[in-house]
Amino acid sequence: MSPADPTLAALVEEVRRRLAAEPGALTPHRVADALRAAGRPVGDATVLAVYEGLRREVVGAGPLQPLLTLAGVTDVLVNGPGPVRIDRGQGLEESAVALGTEEECRRLAQRLVASGGRRLDDAAPWADVRLPDGTRCHAVLAPIAQPGTAISLRVPRRGGFSLPELRAAGALTDAGHELLVRIVAARRAFLVSGGTGSGKTTLLAALLGVVDPAERIVVVEDAAELRPGHPQVVGLEARPANLEGAGAVVLRDLVRQALRMRPDRLVVGEVRDAAVVDLLAALNTGHEGGCGTLHANSAADVPARVEALALTAGLGRAAAHSQLASAIDLVLHVVRDRGSGRRRLGEIAVLARDPDGWARTETAASFATDGRLVEGPGSSRLLALLDQVAS
Which whole number is the average pLDDT over 185-210? Predict the structure, then answer.
């Protein structure tokens, strides 16, 4: 029987109801007894198929587990009943795994979220958790999610990529690789910007891997995703409130704690809230080489994005732009090519001020899809920033 076979699905549901009435370990023997009690066939193949169907629901990510271990998979997506989709870096594709009913999708979502220490029900219909193996899980229950319960799994790459590996994969050109190494060595403060799934965290982790081994890196994240290949990394991870609404640890508090931990490099895994104010303040008080990631459509949009986040902390527009222009030297913008789905470094921009004092970016170098390096108006300023390291 195939896992998507409706007959098998009916048998699994029948056995599940009977086993739930009498608590005990899940064993093939108990499955066979439940099938007999229901007047169903009890052949060895049927018993094992039903047993495996039930076991998949309680082990790891259930029926999604085989997809999480496929080589190159970065995302596993459930859009209600039907085929599960995966992303292996070339855009979304249907997998051979399918979920049969909305009840099955809901049950899987609730179990995954529970394994991450959160609750998912009609009173709390969405949740974002990190699973025990490091996988990031986001789930939204139907009917809020249509056409059914939605589950999004972001799979961490074991060991991460190094800069040479990103170059070999086409994410960096030779010129881009050389510039990035010089940026890290120059201890320049930077933000990696880009859209969701564009590879911001992957690039940041690779950059941290070439930091001097003698330097201490303190990483602050909402959910631990950065895994840089560096011998001196200390991670601080935010924590949501418990079921009683207490015990939350927010990113902004962790940034403040990180400053007391003697960081040579302060890293905020993803700047998404008022913590941007504390990061900018830290980088304006002598903490060189700090960095983080930021959602933005382009490098040119970064100042507006930082301004909006700073406003949530009560920092006015003029102060936000002043802090940004003096704290951040560069923006590394990553893109995802349409069609091929390839993630790559698209642009390096420098921060500057316009005549009115507002922060803006100037393109220093952009990288065409064919690998050509195109110098921009900020190229001389970029070279000046990199040349200052040796002095």
Answer: 93
DSSP labels, 99-130: E--HHHHHHHHHHHHHHTT---SSSS-EEEEE
CATH, range 163-390: 3.40.50.300
Q: Is the pTM value of this prediction over 0.85? A: no
Residue 169 tokens read as: 């994969």
What's the CATH fold of domain 61-155?
Beta-Lactamase (3.30.450)
Inter-CA distances, 133 with 68, 130, 349, Å? 10, 8, 36
User: Is 300 within 8 Å of 361 (Cβ atoms)?
Assistant: yes
Dist. CA 309–CA 153, nearest whole Å: 26
Which has the closest alpha carbon to 140: 153, 129, 127? Answer: 127
Q: Do residues 34 and 15 make contact, with C-beta atoms less than 8 angstroms apart?
A: yes
Rounded-to-integer distance, Cα 236 and Cα 218, Å: 8
Phi-psi region of 52 (alpha: psi -120 to 50; beta: other; left: phi over 0): alpha
For residues 243-250, average pLDDT: 77
